[in-house]
Amino acid sequence: MKKLFAETIAIAIIAGEKILKYYKTNIDYVLKNDFSPITQADLESNDFILESLKSTFPVCSEERFISLQERQRGEYYWLVDPLDGTKDFIAQNNHFSVNIALMKKDIPIFGVIYIPAMKKLYAGGEIGFWGLKGEEIKYFSLSPAWEKLQRFYYHQYPRSQFIGCDSKFHSTDTGVNFFKQYQLRKMAIGSSIKFCALSLGIADIYPRFNGSKEWDTAAGDAILRSVGGFLYDTKTQEILRYGKEDLKNNFFIAFSPRLKDIYKEFLK
After folding, report:
1. pLDDT digits (tens, 9 = 90+) for 193-207
2. Is 132 marked within a binding site?
3. Which of 88, 115, 136, 160 sits in a 20 to 30 Å window from 31, CA-based?
4. 3-class SS at 99?
5. Is 85 marked within a binding site?
């Protein structure tokens, strides 16, 4: 599997570079049926990823939905968000990413999040937490090999106040009240970069009290699981599960390893 994972990381990098061709320009977009924006960068990244992965397992993408039956016809399938954080991309604030997750029986076992504008890449799952930064990313895409990745670790940095991630565009009143109730210091981060912050120990908790889809969370979930964190489904009161026909997530709270023994304190 490591060879496949390395190749998938290279695919995410190349997709990210395709996205950057449209960045820092006058970005045109249209609204989809759910009123979320889509750009040519979304579509080009999506087409490239689908073409690159189609010979492996079924691919379900934000821009190319496939049914639950198609996803589950074998043991594995992919969940892809070719440009997570399109609003951030349009706002040109660097907080957007390419997300690719490999699912095994509806469980995310590997995920890669590439942040092209920051030249940062994070990958993880059952094989641990890995990544790349800067020029190493370019060289990896030219010749992908698992041995070229750096091993990353979760660090429990000392602090007097827990840090919570919040969206730049999707804050809710419930979320604002949650931050006040638990006296969290707010860190505004776009797209799936929030999961990277939790996995690195930069932040501690991420409450999501509005709509999301499985392709929004699967890659970050796999990475967070690799260091001992998890996503808690506030409706079922269990670990967030995948494999729903409509791919809609319930509201959830993502916890870093720092909070794994006291997470119930945040459910009151």
Report:
1. 999 999 999 999 999
2. no
3. 115
4. strand
5. yes
Per the annotation, does 166 bind a ligand? Answer: no
CB 12 within 8 A of CB 137: no
* Cross-strand pairs, 97: 84
Strand locations in the chain, DSSP E?
A: 29-31, 37-39, 59-61, 76-84, 97-104, 107-115, 120-125, 128-133, 150-151, 163-166, 185-188, 205-208, 230-233, 238-239, 252-255
Buried (b) or exposed (e) across 18-37, using 16+ Cβ within 10 A? bbeebeeeebebeeeeeeee
Residue 34, marked binder: no
CATH class of the domain comprising 2-151: alpha beta
Q: Please choose, from the candidates 106, 89, 108, 105, the residue with its C-alpha nearest in 3D space to the C-alpha of residue 97.
A: 89
Nearest residue to 6 (alpha-carbon basis) of 105, 180, 145: 145
What percentage of the chain exceeds 90 in pLDDT? Answer: 95
pTM above 0.90, yes or no: yes
Give per-residue pLDDT as tens, 69-88. 999 999 999 999 999 999 99
Domain 163-266 adopts which CATH fold?
D-Maltodextrin-Binding Protein; domain 2 (3.40.190)
Q: Which of 32, 7, 1, 2 is nearest to 213 (CA)?
A: 32
- pLDDT value at residue 268: 87
- The answer to whether the annotation marks 246 as part of a ligand binding site is no
116: CB partners within 8 A, 6+ apart: 13, 16, 17, 19, 20, 23, 96, 97, 98
Asked if residue 42 belongs to a known ligand binding site, the reply is no
Is position 221 annotated in a ligand binding site? no
Closest among 101, 116, 91, 102 to 193, alpha carbons compared: 116
Q: What are the extents of the domains in the chain? A: 2-151, 163-266
